Predict the structure.
Amino acid sequence: MTGPKQIARALLPLVGVAMLLAVWTLVNGLNLVDPVLLPSPAATFRTLWEGMTSGKLGVDFVKTVVRTISSTAIAAVIAIPLGILLGSSEKLYRSVEFLIDFFRSTPASAMFPLFLVLFGVGDRTKISVAAFGAGLVILFNVAYGVMNARKTRLLAAKVMGASRTRVLFDVMLLESLPQTFVGLRNGVSLALVIIVVAEMFIGSTDGLGQRVFEAQQLFDMPGMYAAIFAAGALGYALNLLFLLIERRFVHWAGR
Amino acid sequence: MTSATASTASGVVNGFDESRRTAPHVTIRGLSKRYPDAVIYDAFDFDIPRGKLISVFGPNGCGKSTLINMIAGLVPADAGEVLFDGRPLSRVKFGYVFQNYREALFPWLPAFDNIVYPLKLMGVPKAERRLRVERLVAHLGVKIDLALYPYYLSGGQQQLVSIMRALIVEPEILFLDEPFSALDYEMTLFMREQLQRVFMETKTTTVLVSHDLEEAVYLSDYVLLLSRHPARVVEFVPYDAPRPRTDKTMTEPSFIATKAHCLKLFQREVRRG
């Protein structure tokens, strides 16, 4: 099974990475762009490595992780039960659908000033704005997951004598799980975006957003690129983490 | 005939005097159902005989499925009454098999847990649940690894799991809504034999909705032929070939004659519309 063809297939995603690095090295080596604006890949990755292992970047990275996870967790704890409640009654959902869609469409960054007034300058504002944004995404997905539960499956449970509560917990809840995970993945991505932006502009002293912003202000380009890559890696890893959890708990999805 | 299912079948009979042994199992009176675009049933009366396998057959859209769905309480009737030996549905143990097994089974539970789900709802203890499944498996000669999730099973195996889930409660009546129409032909033939075996072993009153006349006649003691809506009974056609019926049964004159008779009535109904 692990012939040369399979190995080649597994390495395929790395082709794009190699190409980017090659172009970057070439542009840098030929001095096509001012080296102050675009440092070499080696310098960038050295800065990334040193920053993550011994420098301030690692501390900022952890700060951003903690804020993103906290806001997603708060959002999930509130939005999942609420989504189930709303989804279990179509009438109820329709009555608040406009509100949910409206605030879901409102850029969360537009809410910063409001939350600043409510919670002051600090972690509470950042986390609550991100939780607000992520919560609406999760709420909407959970509610739709519950509402779109297969009719036949609900009927099957009912015909076997399951009460409304049993149908809710034994069928609807599990039926909505795949959609719930879609919501969680989108929610955590959005939370990261909001947290990073908040770290840039709401009087922060730490976090990846603040690091990117500060490096740019100090014209520390390797530091800035390093922080950007760290943020990218974080976003990718969070998405992957939720995908793995999903595959573990929703083994039947798509089958 | 040593199993619990068999003893239950006779147990049902033991509860009544001799005259009731031949009394109808289910009495349907004045059943009415109207959809926005059509009257499907208008004061429909019918008696379902005890311990027989009957097939419901009729033109498309005449309300074959609606009939068993109303009897089984999946679809509310506008008017009328359905009684099982004089009792309402809420006091009756019954099994229902859906056409779409993929959507009727719970994909998050292994086959075994799917089968015992109704027992769990009834509060049957775990040890007894296991015992009952073992008995049913032996009874039906099922060769499926029940530890597998449904999506690892073939279509026929999934539908067999659905049927076992319907039988595990030892129902006094079993409803099947076009149970084989999503299967390929080979699997359909195999599943007909399985259903025949279930029926011969348990003698459970069975109502099968079918869109395949050959299947309807082959499996049934009676074919209930319905008219176009509002549905009436065109004829309740008996077919009493001995069981087990085999491929050879389908070449016998009585089978051919019964099928031809049903087809004639069916085509008359189709043309009438």
Remarks:
- Chain A has ten helices and no strands.
